[in-house]
Amino acid sequence: MMTIRTMTISDYDMVYALWMSCKNMGFNNLDDSKEGIEKFLNRNPNTSFVAVEDDAVVGIVLAGHDGRRGYIYHMSVAELYRRQGLGSMLVEKCLASLKEEGINKVALLVFNRNEVGNSFWEKQGFTARDDITYRNKELNKIIRIDT
């Protein structure tokens, strides 16, 4: 039987393995390390969820907020569990928790090459913006991990 529950750091190894199995996503060695995710979960303890079946993580949504805006950082569903509504259930749970914490707007990034991801987010009601340029700057040396 599948359950959806709040993510804890004890889920990390299975979550990371799921992330690495999904194509066209981007990670890095610092923010997505066990230590980085533990810091994130300590700051945002109620907004990330895992779907678990037979003691295995088959879906994950990693989300949080800064008090003003919500952000979905990573979303993955194991290939065998796709197109069954699991991703939508994880997103609904995540958005409800963010709304409960007083967040009014949620953003996310998807690589242009990730056609499956972009199609999914479009169906979830997330619109693409063409009026902004995304920029970032490394404060520490980061190694990208693209799947």
Kindly list the characteristics that best describe this protein.
single chain; 147 residues; alpha+beta; 5-stranded mixed beta sheet; two-stranded antiparallel sheet
Task: Give the topology, please.
Blueprint: E1 2-6, H1 12-21, E2 26-28, H2 34-43, E3 49-53, E4 56-65, E5 70-77, H3 86-100, E6 106-108, H4 115-123, E7 144-146
Parallel strand pairs: 5-6
Antiparallel strand pairs: 1-3, 2-7, 3-4, 4-5
Helix content, binned percent: 25-40%
Q: Bin the strand percentage.
A: 25-35%
Strand order of the largest sheet: 1-3-4-5-6
Query: Helix/strand-derived class?
Result: alpha+beta
Radius of gyration: 15 Å
Mean pLDDT: 96
Order of helices and strands: EHEHEEEHEHE
Estimate the global geometry from the Cα principal axes: globular
How many strands?
7
Number of helices in the DSSP assignment: 4
- What profile does the largest beta sheet have? 5 strands, mixed
Poorly predicted tracts of residues? none
Distance between the termini: 29 Å
Describe the structure.
This protein has 147 residues and is α+β, with helices and mostly antiparallel strands. It is 30% helix and 25% strand. It has four helices and seven strands; from the N terminus they run E-H-E-H-E-E-E-H-E-H-E. Strands 1-3-4-5-6 form a five-stranded mixed beta sheet, sandwiched between helices. Strands 2-7 form a two-stranded antiparallel ribbon. Strand 4 and strand 5 (70-77) form a beta hairpin.
